[in-house]
Amino acid sequence: MLGFDVSSEQYSSSQSFQEVGMVKMDNVTFGVTMLIVGMGGTLLTLGIMSLIMAALKRVFPYRKEEEEKS
Amino acid sequence: MVDAMLNGFLGLGAGFANLHWSNPIMIAVGCVLLYLGIKKDFEPLLLVPIGFGCIIVNIPLAGLMEKHGFLRTIYDAGVMTELFPLFIFVGIGAMTDFGPVLENPYTFLLGAAGQFGIFLTLLLALALGFTQLEAVSVGIIGACDGPTAIYVTSKYAPHLLGAVSVAAYSYMSLVPVFQPPIMRALTTKKEREIVMKTHQKTVSRTTKLMFPLVITVIGGLIAPMGLPLIATLMLGNLMKESGAVARLTRAAENEIANIVTLLLAISIGATMDGRAFLRKETLIILCLGFVAICLDTVCGVLFGKVLKVLTGGKVNPLIGAAGISAFPMSARVVQKEGHNYNKKSYLLMHAMGANAGGQVGSVLAAAVMLAVLKGMGVI
Questions:
Q1: What is the CA radius of gyration of chain A?
Q2: Using the beta-carbon criterion (under 8 Å), do A45 and B105 form an inter-chain contact?
Q3: CA–CA separation, B30 vs B37, rounded Å?
Q4: Is B364–A39 a contact, with Cβ atoms under 8 angstroms apart?
Q5: Is the model's pLDDT at A15 over the cut of 70?
Q6: Residue A44 parent element (H or E)
Q7: What's the rounded Cα separation, in Å, for the pair B132 and B123?
Q8: Are B293 and B117 in contact (CB under 8 A)?
């Protein structure tokens, strides 16, 4: 009896969850989609964040006197 | 009477009699992790409890990972529920100063480029025969962030948790070893000598307070599946920047982070039972983890070169290597490399910006990945 069962109910249920009711996709489609959409999504999200933060810096500029007060 | 005594003595030797061939090997592996943590100072806060957990779980008949075993209880309570990595993220957020990245918001993009390794490694893992969710869990090692890797792997491939965690934490501590050769190979001497101007402090307190809120709301709307990761990191940062909850911030940075780190690490060690760990997949995962972090560095430096061209030579491409989540180790590596080639070059603050961007980038990359998986109907 393994101390940690690799075919535990948790894994079995997640494996069957993957197979049942969810879209089955070939690995090439999956991998390329993850690469393009995943990486593109990450770049886009962080690009949006950088624009928002740049805009916030303009809206709330650094003022030495106010920072020293706070 | 004699039979009873004999059976009693046999009971004393039951541990030895039930040893599997993999158990002594894993006990040795645990000792190696202890050596790396204690003697070599490689992420000791993690490798010491992981190593010890690995040793004790490979002693047969102790029942530590059986139902109601003490390690099983901790594992189910904190790892399977994903609570432990999320609590650690609160502490990380409370310890991180995002000021350098806010001073130069373009460094967010370096943080994004530093996550390419996740997706490229995912492709490699698929090519090597891993299932789709296993490949996601292997690729996430490239986030170079332990809690993120544990969060994703415990959800989608818990049987790989031991290998993924050991890979993620071990390679993070090896960043100063394998990043410099990659940085030198991809840059010219002239590029490494570029001096970047240092800036005065230009970020208002209001901006620093708005930052965690913006990241949480916008990031959460784009990738709701990753909101637990984003929100806990940003909660810690908001507590720190507000200054209004100093007790909570101190607790998050110290007591909570330390207790959860101990429990998490020993739970990870507990997954390293020899019969589950010593498989060829484990070796492949350890290799792919290394490849993932190398690819992160390669893509980060290449993106740094693109920024150098776009800015007319003002950006030193070395800072691209700091766009990973190994904070602040990677920033120090970049500073050291730049300083080696030009004593007038002080890249630390710029590299810290890229490094902090990498921290946010790794969390957002995981969140985006989960959102895309959900959108594709895989989860």
A1: 24
A2: no
A3: 11
A4: no
A5: no
A6: helix A39-59
A7: 9
A8: yes
Residue B83 contacts residue B77 (beta carbons within 8 Å): yes
pLDDT digits 0-9 by tens, B17-57: 899 999 999 999 999 999 989 998 888 888 899 999 999 99
Question: B106 with B292: CB under 8 angstroms?
Answer: no
Token representation of residue B33: 């992790």
- Candidates A37, A42, A51; nearest CB to B112: A42
B65/A contact by beta carbon, under 8 A = yes
**Residues 2-61, chain A: which have Cβ within 8 Å of B?**
2-4, 6, 8, 10-11, 14, 17-18, 22-23, 25, 27, 30-35, 37-39, 41-43, 45-54, 56-57, 60-61
Cβ contact, residue pair A18, B132, below 8 Å: yes
Give the count of domains, chain B: 1
Distance from CA of B204 to the nearest CA of A (A): 4
Task: Establish if B161 belongs to a structural domain.
Answer: yes
SS3 B308: helix
CA distance B59 to B73: 18
Chain B nearest-CA distance from A69, in A, is 11
Tell me, yes or no, whether B338 lies in a domain. yes
Side chain identity at B297, as an amino acid letter? Answer: T
Total length of chain A: 70
Residue-wise pLDDT for B176-197, tens only, equals 888 999 999 999 999 999 999 8
Q: DSSP letter at B312? A: T
Residue ranges making up the domain that contains B210: 42-58+75-372
Q: Which residue of B has its CA nearest to A48?
A: B218
Token digits for B106? 């373009």
- Residue B310 domain-assigned (yes or no): yes
Q: Which residue in A has a C-alpha nearest to residue B376's C-alpha?
A: A23
Convert B328-350 to b/e letters by CB count within 10 Å (16 or more is b). bbbbbbbbebbeebbeebbbbbb
**What residues pair up with A61 in beta bridges, in sequence order?**
B203
Across B115-136, average pLDDT:
95
**Residue B94: both structure tokens together:** 């409370």
B205 closest CB neighbour out of A11, A23, A67:
A67
